[in-house]
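Assemble and predict.
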Amino acid sequence: MTGSWFLDHLWLVPLLPFAGFLLVALVLRPLAGPRACSAAAIAAVAGSAIVGWGAAFAYFSRHLGETLVPWQATWLAFTPTFSGNVGVIADDLSLLLVMVVTGVSLLVHIYSTGYLHGEPGYPRYFACLNLFTASMLGLVLSVSILQIYVFWELVGVSSFLLIGYYWEKPSAVSACKKAFIVTRFADLGFLLGLLVLAAYAGGMDFAHLGDPATLERLSGVRLLGTSALTLSAVLVYAGAAGKSAMFPLHIWLPDAMEGPTPVSALIHAATMVVAGVYLVARLFPLYTATPEGLGVVTAIGTFTALFAAVIAVTQFDIKRVLAFSTLSQLGYMMLALGVARAEEPLGFTASTFHLATHACFKALLFLGAGSVIHAVHSNDIREMGGLRRKMPLTHATFLVACLAIAGVPPLSGFFSKDEILAAALHGGHPVVFGVAMLVAGLTAFYMFRLYFLTFSGAPRDHHRFEHAHESPASMTAPLAVLAVPSVLLGFVPFGHFVNRGELGHHGIDFAIAIPATLAGLAGIGLAALLYARPSAAPDRIAAALGALYRAVYAKFYFDEIYLFVTHKIIFRFISRPLAWFDRRIVDGTMDLTAQASRLGGSWLRLSASGRLQNALRFVAGGACGLMLVLILGRAIPRILAVVGYAAIALVLVAQVVRNLRGRGEPLKRIERD
Amino acid sequence: MPGLPHYLVLSALLFMFGVYGLLTRRNLVAMLLCVELILNAAALNFVTFHHFLFRGDPAGAVFPILIIAVAAAEAAVALAIIIAQFRHTRNLDARAADTLHG
């Protein structure tokens, strides 16, 4: 069909990890040892990676610019003209993501065999990891917004399972619940947006949604004071912002660091959190048609980039620093998408470019952090220091990743960040450009603060330092592999492969590159000054900033604000009265009818006493009744109805009276909580 | 000379005595007697109408005979049951005969 076996069999990419998940979870976990489980899981992802990379190479070499659908089927045929389709899509964006996801996932699988060696939940971990990989690959290959929504939720579930891997730890349990609830809350927006699109666009395939005629029609529909186009764009963006942890919904990502570190590298740095960016990029034609929607994307992205970078400066947990750094970089990607226009799509290329480079160096940072945590059994960078000598390979790769994220030329981060800055400036957003420049400096500063505190200087905790050791080869090998693209990916002519139209600006613009590099170097220099050797200066600065520092350190109290709003306001003033209404009024009515039936039954039971004379009395009464029928004739049905209703009312009133006097027999209660 | 109304009133009285007795007496034999009263009230009704209004129609004469036959059969069966009941419980009270009550 397309002349490439890999492209024709692209559906194998999500299917193989899913088969691996079933095999590990249902067959190998109960029957075989942990080594068989991890081997099967790695083999499944490796197979998926081979097919995915083969397809990507075939696409980028021979089909560039086309959108191929190697396999598609009608899943839900709502009407003859309106159906939900499933399938696999092959274009530059989806295959880029396939390469990133399969590559990072394979490395994380291998790394995990070392990191989780000997843990009791080892087989379960690999089953969940395979499930996640399958869901994520299904997500990036979706042909319709309905299919992407299904995989979107599957990704959420597997993320929930993996964050809660250490389920015996209460903090991990609350973290996984928090991640699930916050993203699920955001997905409500996504679902509403999907429904708006389904209702007014007349189709759910991306090919249909990107069609100018559809966009024309959508922008013509007025809905809630705006156009259906803008409304659906903003609603879908709410879901994307939840998954990508954008500003008001960012609170779950730092807590998600309770999961094992390889999970953080795979899900919360390289793949799942970029699903939101991917969704906006996938619906790029829709967003470029609505300047208001893009404005929201830009504003939230820019704010998150700055906000998270500021918090990252103050944190002491090695994984939390990286988590806030991820938030900040995701904001970067979003703002790049936001500043892109249909006629100037540099932001699209810049965003996806940064997505790819960030996936490499951030996964590398997380895996390096995992290696450090594995060695010193602590997350707190105040208990580390001087690890350079103990862990040379981890140190070297971590340094490479730090340089890459700080944007030091000629590493990959330099190129992608430069493109984002160029997109912001040429897109006519000087404020966004300024903020992005500031964030570039901040990024370099907090990353090198982390680096210096962890690896250089003198050990601050001698006990932990003595026990530290370089990690096994299964962990250091993925670090070395990831370091290669972190360095070299920038030299790929990315705009040639992934774009949405001709790029007006191309190559390095020195008017942007030099200040950006200087900002990065300034951040590194400042970090070196403050943290390279033991010094009291950071504490003095923190003390001087006082309340401001404490607010930043407490992440601007967002968790507390959300807790206050949910517990003190929503629970007390909305949930409690509603629960009372449900228990007392809704359930109460049901209970009352049941109790009244029982009361009426107990009265009727008196008639069936088993006494002959009693029965005879009814016979005599019935005879009299028949005589009345003969006399009264046609009024009988009405009289019977009145008598019947009166009887029901009498029973109900009697039961209410009994209940009010506290003499009502309670029903056998079903446990409702 | 008594006419149609006299016979009908007699029949009604017999019927009411029968019903009253059936509702109030608890002795099974007495209740059986009351049933006989009701049956005979009905038979008397038939004969009365036959005699005064439908002379030529034989149904009015046939039904009383049928009723007497049924009453005899019924009395035989009922007495047999009552005797069996009495042998079993040494009691003729209707309230005691509730072994079949769920």
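DSSP finds 30 helices and four strands in chain A.
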